[in-house]
Specification:
- The chain has 334 residues and is an alpha/beta fold.
- It is 45% helix and 24% strand.
- The chain contains 12 helices and 13 strands.
- Strands 6, 7, 8, 9, 10, 11, 12 and 13 form an 8-stranded antiparallel β-sheet that branches. Strands 2-1-3-4-5 form a 5-stranded parallel β-sheet, sandwiched between helices.
- Strand 12 (295-304) and strand 13 form a beta hairpin.
- The two termini are 30 Å apart.
């Protein structure tokens, strides 16, 4: 049986590795890989994607852009979207643009096999010879940063789905930024989120399985009235503060639960607390710099479609947490 050209298009080495491993082992796919939508589109044009496993959140050209380009160019690969963006609207848009199926990350092998079978790609009884499987299924190398960015991507997608339902809007997802930062560098990272001079921040601590840290949700004061209007919240100080605490609990809780599930650990979460109100970024750092020191930071900036509203989320893990995180990620990778 001739090999079927299958393209795995995802910006994460870890996601591509997980997907390739999840494919039915006894089907002779000829696998190509692409790290963004531009590369993926070119691979499809060259005939390397009769079947495409497509991520939505990618640099240069996202999955929605790839699907739109395929339709515009009259290209007709069988596309299965595999994404951490699990919002109902994301599923609807992907299928409206021609995706045949939608699977949430990390992909379950049984669901993937069912989706392939639905395309008419039936898994045969014969197995691929071992020497061919090595050629067809070359796995990418995965760094700690890439692996942690991918589990953060899945976790932030869970949080976005819940946030979108609460606010009744579509949440635009970024690519998470993962770095180990000194406190001075954290200052710079937070400064990058500043679009005005007055911020409010809510923090929530977490601990479990040898991992600990704090999550920060940063609100831009100029946007708080707009958020309150979405939620029909009164515009007095007390009601808006309660609204921020509630949103922090939703966003941070969903994100940490997503991390816990993937890493197979139990993260106990503290109550959300006010870290600072109506203050410039310099004050926020100065007040809390002793708490953060050197940290593993995940930066996520959620945007609300068609609205000038953003939620800047930072997950700050203690330096002592990194060895345990490496251990859990190595287990997932291997």
């Amino acid at each position: 049986m001739s090999a079927i050209p299958l393209l795995v298009c995802d910006d994460s080495n870890m996601a591509r590795k997980q997907l390739i491993r999840a494919l039915p082992a006894n089907w002779p796919f000829r696998i190509s890989q692409a790290a963004n939508g531009v590369e993926g589109l070119e691979a499809i044009r060259q005939g390397n994607g009769q079947v495409v496993l497509l991520d939505l959140t990618m640099p240069e050209l996202d999955g929605f852009g790839v699907l739109a380009a395929l339709r515009e160019e009259g290209l007709t690969p069988e596309v299965i979207v595999v994404s951490g963006d699990v919002q109902d609207e994301a599923v609807r848009r992907a299928k409206a643009l021609g995706a045949r199926a939608f699977i949430k990350k990390p992909a379950d092998p049984m669901q993937l096999a069912e989706a392939l079978n639905a395309l008419g790609v039936d898994v045969p009884m014969a197995t691929v010879p071992e020497e061919q499987e090595d050629v067809y299924r070359t796995l990418p190398n995965v760094s700690f940063r890439d692996a942690f960015r991918e589990v953060s991507n899945v976790a932030m997608g869970r949080a976005a789905e819940l946030l979108g339902r609460v606010l009744g809007v579509f949440i635009k997802l970024p690519i998470p930024n993962v770095n180990i930062l000194e406190v001075g560098e954290l200052h710079m990272a937070l400064a990058d989120t500043q679009r005005d001079t007055s911020l409010s921040a809510i923090c929530q601590g977490y601990i479990g399985g040898g991992i600990a840290g704090e999550a920060l949700l940063i609100f831009h004061d100029s946007e708080i009235d707009d958020i309150a209007q979405l939620l029909n919240t009164q515009r007095d100080e007390g009601a808006q503060l309660e609204m921020q605490l509630d949103l922090a609990s939703i966003i941070i809780g969903a994100c940490l639960n997503g991390l816990s599930e993937q890493l197979n650990i139990n993260l106990s979460q503290g109550h959300p607390l006010v870290l600072g109100q109506h203050c410039p970024i310099e004050d926020l750092i100065r007040i809390n710099q002793r708490r953060w020191k050197r940290t593993l930071a995940v930066e996520i900036s959620y945007g609300l479609e068609n609205l000038d509203i953003h939620f800047d989320l930072l997950l700050l893990f203690t330096e002592d947490s990194v060895p345990k995180l490496r251990e859990r990620l190595n287990y997932m990778i291997d």
